[in-house]
Amino acid sequence: MPTTIPSASSVTASAAQALFTSLQSGSGVDTASLVSSLVQAQFAAKTGALTQKSDAITAQISGTSTLMSTVAQFASALKGLATGGTLQTQPVSSNSSIVTAAAISGAKLAGLSSSITVGQLAAGQVARTTTPVASRTSALGTGTLTLTLGTATYNSGQTAMTGFTAGSGTPVTIDIAAGATSLDGIAAAINAKNAGITASVVTDADGSAYLSLKGATGAAQAFTLEATSDPSGNLAQLNVGVGATGTALTAGAQNARLTVDGVTVERASNTISDLVAGVKLQLTGTSNTAVALTSSTPTDALKSSIADFVDTYNEVLKTLTEQLDPQTGPLRGDAAAQTLLRSLRSLTTKPVLTGVAAGTPTTLGEIGIKTNRNGTLSVDDATVARVLTASPDAVEAMFAFSTTSTNGLTAALNSISLSTSSTLYGLGASAKRYSEQASAVAKAQDNIATQSDAMTTRLTQQFASMNAKVAAYKSTQSFLKNQIDAWNKNN
């Protein structure tokens, strides 16, 4: 409820009445009250106008902040929904114990149909020492180990390496220095090189320790380890490779081998993203029976998203129309707010999909989102159901997110949000302008306060002087009256 500012005439009349009352009372003038009233009367009109202007600007600043935040949250929520994966057609594996599949963000998987047979999983070479060490902290000796990656051949049980061809990479030198010559220290030195080999120390029930070495998956990730400097002769027991006697292999390095739609391929990893377009495969087992890969459209999630979009849009529209109310809206004259309203309404009138086949739904209206007479949206459930049956790809594309495409609701709303927050032409510019106006009003209010203080000082001094003279006149009047009364009494 706005504060009522007294008019200059009412304040002046009050001050005059106070003066007359004080003079007639014989107790002197109440200068403090009188000066305050006169100063207030002098600046009442300006103070009232500035207060009203300040209140209006504060409401405008709050309005721009509210709208920018509301639109940004709308865009962010829609982006989160689009990138969450729940609205994207998902690949379906007929046997998840052999192959699992996940959609790559942005991929179009409608109509997916592939056949996959997994003959071999990718594996990494694993080696361990065969002679136990009494304690994992026992010192073995200083020296140098050399780690080399390449391809290898193994015996039938993959328990020994029968051949090795070094790869193109540079062998890695691992220095075993004093103070770190135990199995724990050697494992730490190997891991510190980040060369693709993971070392760990395993102890048995008796506390005896073994060194375990595991390489990355893929046939080209086989490795040898050689004690190239071994003054104590104890590091040689860690050698891995052809003819090594101190270690044994428990697995050899190999590629995954699979057949996709009749084509046999190999990959170094069991996680594969370059065989079926838009799908990341995870190989989990082998089988001679083909696994069927199909797709499933998230119809229920898309229906729910359409309803959520409509509800959120209506809430945003309500906030915007309140700010633009021609009678009470603080932003009723703001051009950027009017532009925002037109931009939001354009979401329902212009295509949000371009470059699609003829007959494909491209507008919100065509997928069942209706515009009411008051500008709000509503959902035509029958149309939504029909479109999700006939053109689910189009609905999915409208809600899809892409960092490169300008298609879809997410891109359209993100564009509106960026324009709204622009400090050049959007509500960001309006907020900046209102802040500058608020600073100017505050400065004007400070100037009035300074002038009020100066006038208060001046009037106080003037009325103090007047008060002293009035007191003197009253004293003289009292003396003369007493004299006259005395003379009259003597006569």
- Overall 3D form: elongated
Strand content: 15-25%
What's the number of structural domains? 4
Structural class: alpha+beta
Helix proportion: 40-55%
Biggest sheet layout: 5 strands, antiparallel
- Tell me, rounded to a whole number, the average pLDDT: 88
DSSP summary, beta strand count: 18
The CA-CA distance between the termini, in Å, is 71 Å
Poorly predicted regions are 23-27
Q: Please state the CA-atom Rg, rounded to the nearest Å.
A: 44 Å
Tally of separate helices? 9
Strand order, largest beta sheet: 1-16-3-12-13
Question: In sequence order, what are the helices and strands, one letter per element?
Answer: HHEEEEEEEHEEEEEEEEEHHEEHHHH
Description:
With 491 residues, the protein is α+β, with helices and mostly antiparallel strands. It has four domains: 97 residues, no CATH class; 147 residues, no CATH class; 72 residues, no CATH class; 131 residues, no CATH class. It has nine helices and 18 strands. The strands form five sheets. Strands 1-16-3-12-13 form a five-stranded antiparallel beta sheet, with no helix packed on it. The protein has a four-stranded antiparallel beta sheet with strand order 8-9-4-11. 29% of the residues are buried.
